Amino acid sequence: MNIDLEDKGSSSIRILFVEDDRDYVLTIKTLLSGINRTKYVIRWAPDYLCALDELRSGRYDICLLNFRFGDFDGPSILEYADEHRLTTPIIVMACRDEVDTPSLGTADRIYRDEVCAEALEQSILSAVQRSRSEKKTARHVAAMDAAMDGLAIIDKSGYVVSANKSMASMYLFDEPAQLEGVDLSAFFAGEYSRKLARSALAEAGRSGRWSGEGRGVRLNGDTFPKEFAISPVGDGQFALVERDISESQDLQEQLFQTQRVEGIGQMTGGIIHDFNNLLSAVLGYSQLGLLKLREAILSGPILKRSKKPRSVPLC
Question: Rounded to two decimals, what is the model's pTM?
Answer without folding.
Answer: 0.53
